[in-house]
């Protein structure tokens, strides 16, 4: 997740706040209606600008089987998204094919290619994530002009799920529509911009009928097409909408109009964990262990559903009330419901978090998330990932050698856990249920705020 320029200053002070709190949004005032109109007209303008803009070529073919899509290196160091191709134990590279210039997308395609998240307009003030470099073969088909019945069913399902889970920050829930489950922008009052991603902005929004506060992610269809992210979005919707867990950000549903696609997401008042971490440089053992325990719970749930997240990092973890964290951003995740034992060859994720098996182009499975959990644990305690280097090749080398060093202040139990997670052989990595019983977790558990 990437911040807006405005957020750069917020980051430096470390205070991540919401102008539009759930309480303040419960009533609709004249000024908020005016604000809403202003935002809507700006949104409209933005959509028009983007719609008119010509197709941007953001990719170039590499001399290998993959396609390289480049952005800037991240600040202070680059993170790299590498994607070859998902396989059914065989690897087929697909060339870019841009088959549509229409302003419509098909988010119900059944193809399972993973698309990249390029940032064609890098901004030096943006977060490390926004400066990723992406390598990916893509096959894009975007000729459909409408959401098909299957996606409508998906929407119904996700809205239906909504009724059963209510965020702690509100007393209402987003109602399910028993008729046609249709939401539109008119159903929401938009508040402040929570942040800006590669595709658009995320607004704090109130569902007018229920007063329910959500995060509304607005993406233009044209951007999705230009950046070849339709299938990525489809996968994100398909996977995230079926997940209901206290440590996973809910996707309540989506809707679209002629210009935009809107995701209705669970609102996390604290924003990205990354911002919290940067504001204090590193967390203590109590906070780190509390967060790691929650991410572990989320991963246990995901893996039980045969879903691999594949992009665990502080940018993809949102902080809600009471330091409850919510795993988010399922753009790289993959579901292997049909064949849980299937291994994959896609190289994806973020450079510092890449496991050795991905770097060495070996097949991978759920164990990649356990590796990333080890990197995350280190980053929370130290303030930077363990193999970080300015030169990405040096990072690769350090990862495959497991060149792991701990600062003196890292205690014995934390070292033990991280070392057991960062095992080169995926089979030797500590199972997630054992993480919950690890002495480091148990040592600090009595101090958690629950
Ligand atoms: N559910 C949410 N609750 C609160 N803030 C959010 C939520 N989702 C996103 N945000 C804020 O909006 C910003 C942009 O989010 P977004 O998901 O678009 O970024 P992103 O990860 O770069 O997206 P993508 O990679 O899909 O383009 C985040 O940095 C975060 O601060």
Your description of this structure?
This protein is α+β, with helices and mostly antiparallel strands. 32% of the residues lie in helices and 14% in strands. The chain contains 13 helices and 14 strands. It has helices at residues 5-13, 30-52, 149-162, 221-226, 230-240, 273-280, 285-304, 356-359, 367-382, 392-401, 412-421, 432-436, 439-444, and strands spanning 59-61, 67-69, 80-82, 133-135, 188-196, 200-207, 212-220, 251-256, 260-266, 271-272, 307-308, 317-319, 325-327, 334-335. The strands form four sheets. Strands 5-6-7-9-8 form a five-stranded antiparallel beta sheet. The longest helix is centred in the N-terminal third of the chain and has 23 residues, at 30-52. It is globular and about 55 Å long. The two termini are 28 Å apart. The relative contact order is 0.13. The model is unreliable at 1-172 and 176-180 (pLDDT under 50). It binds adenosine-5'-triphosphate (ATP).
Features:
globular, disordered N terminus, 450 residues, binds adenosine-5'-triphosphate, four-stranded mixed sheet, five-stranded antiparallel sheet, alpha+beta, 13 helices
Quote the average pLDDT: 69
Principal-axes geometry comes out as globular
What profile does the largest beta sheet have?
A: 5 strands, antiparallel
Number of helical elements: 13
Provide the succession of SSEs.
HHEEEEHEEEHHEEEHHEEEEHHHHHH
The count of strands amounts to 14
Distance between the termini: 28 Å
List low-pLDDT spans.
1-172, 176-180
What percentage of amino acids are in beta strands?
Answer: 5-15%
């Amino acid at each position: 997740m990437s911040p807006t320029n405005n957020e750069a200053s917020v980051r430096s002070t470390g205070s991540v706040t919401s102008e539009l709190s759930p309480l303040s949004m419960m009533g609709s005032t004249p000024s908020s209606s005016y604000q809403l109109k202003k935002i809507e007209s700006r949104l409209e303008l933005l959509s028009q600008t983007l719609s008119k803009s010509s197709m941007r070529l953001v990719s170039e073919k590499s001399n290998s089987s993959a396609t390289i899509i480049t952005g800037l290196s991240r600040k202070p160091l680059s993170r790299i998204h590498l994607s070859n191709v998902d396989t059914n134990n065989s690897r087929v590279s697909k060339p870019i094919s841009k088959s549509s210039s229409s302003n419509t997308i098909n988010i119900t395609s059944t193809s399972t290619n993973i698309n990249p998240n390029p940032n064609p307009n890098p901004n030096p003030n943006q977060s490390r994530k926004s400066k990723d470099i992406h390598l990916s073969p893509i096959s894009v088909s975007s000729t459909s002009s409408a959401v098909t019945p299957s996606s409508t069913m998906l929407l119904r399902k996700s809205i239906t799920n909504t009724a059963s889970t209510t965020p702690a920050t509100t007393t209402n829930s987003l109602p399910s529509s028993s008729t046609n489950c249709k939401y539109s922008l008119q159903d929401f009052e938009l508040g402040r911009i929570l942040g800006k991603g590669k595709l658009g902005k995320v607004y704090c929004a109130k569902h007018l009928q229920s007063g329910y506060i959500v995060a509304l992610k607005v993406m233009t269809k044209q951007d999705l097409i230009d950046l070849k992210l339709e299938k990525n979005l489809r996968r994100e919707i398909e996977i995230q909408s079926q997940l209901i867990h206290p440590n996973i950000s809910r996707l309540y549903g989506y809707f679209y109009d002629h210009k935009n696609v809107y995701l209705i997401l669970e609102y996390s008042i604290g924003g990205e964990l990354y911002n919290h971490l940067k504001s204090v440089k590193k967390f203590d053992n109590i906070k780190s262990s509390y967060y790691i325990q929650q991410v572990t719970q989320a991963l246990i749930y995901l893996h039980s559903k045969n879903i691999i997240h594949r992009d665990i990092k502080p940018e993809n973890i949102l902080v809600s009330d009471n330091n409850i964290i919510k795993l988010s951003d399922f753009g790289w995740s993959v579901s292997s419901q049909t064949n849980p034992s299937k291994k994959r060859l896609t190289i994806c994720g973020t450079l510092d978090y890449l496991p050795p098996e991905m770097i060495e182009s070996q097949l991978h499975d759920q164990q990649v998330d356990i590796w990333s959990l080890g990197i995350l644990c280190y980053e929370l305690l130290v303030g930077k990932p363990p193999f970080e280097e300015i030169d990405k090749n040096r990072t690769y080398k350090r990862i495959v050698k497991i060149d792991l060093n701990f600062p003196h202040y890292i205690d014995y139990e934390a070292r033990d856990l991280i070392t057991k997670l960062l095992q080169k052989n995926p089979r030797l990595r500590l199972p997630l249920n054992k993480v919950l019983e690890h002495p480091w977790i148990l040592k600090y558990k009595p101090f958690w705020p629950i």
